[in-house]
Design a protein that fits this description.
It contains 1 helix and 13 strands. The chain is mostly beta strands. The strands form 2 sheets. It has an 11-stranded mixed barrel with strand order 3-4-5-6-7-8-9-10-11-12-13. It has a two-stranded antiparallel ribbon with strand order 1-2. The radius of gyration is 21 Å and the shape is globular.
Length: 261
Amino acid sequence: MFSSWGIIIPQPKPEGVEINMIKNRLKAAGLTTALLGSAALCATASAAATATTSDDLLQDSGAWMQAVGEGNLKSLGPSLEKVRLWLEMQSRWDDNWSHWYQGMFRAAVGYSLSDRATIWAGYTYLPTQQVGKASVQQQDVWPGFRYVLPTDFGTVTLRAMVESNFLPGNGDTVRVRPSQMIRFLHPLKFEPRLSLIAWDEVFVRVNTTPAGGRSGFDQNRAFAGAGWTFNPNIRAELGYMNQYLDDATHTNNTMHHLVMG
């Protein structure tokens, strides 16, 4: 048996056990590869399809800073052990780091169906100040589902959300925008506190609305970076995020090159 660190001579195992272990590892590796490959194909296909109708691609740089807290409510009573609370805050800059344009506050209550699956119901408040435009206050409500899959090579997380975006000037209609995230975290053998992280998230507009644009592809976010686990409750992450956005009419596109921490 070989590893990235050389040759390992394992203790003899029964033939049937060894075969089952190999099968399980191949299944895990295949699933992880398929998930990440699907994410990459979705991102590439979406960008290519949109770029064919785009006159120009506007490129910009900036940063997103994020703080997330999550835990169960067991401290309030044993019966609440499966009830979870998710709190998140973000601050976002664009225009080559010179302009703060968006904040985000998200709160959600969840219920653990198992040690891997959680369902959520949440609310998001999104104040936005684009350059040269009036500020807007967007509010979203959404259900979500998350599934965490440990493998021999790291942890794969699937997260699906279906946002109902209440947009100013949208009249009595609401934009429905589902998203799908695929995330992979791989702790390094020589330093388990250090992890490589990659994820991709695709957003799609289900319906056409005056303020939310035409239905179809909305945006893709792809991240690559590293994380450091200080203890079982605290981790810091830093990396590069590429955000590819389609405009309301699917004719012009923007690509943000972002530092995300």
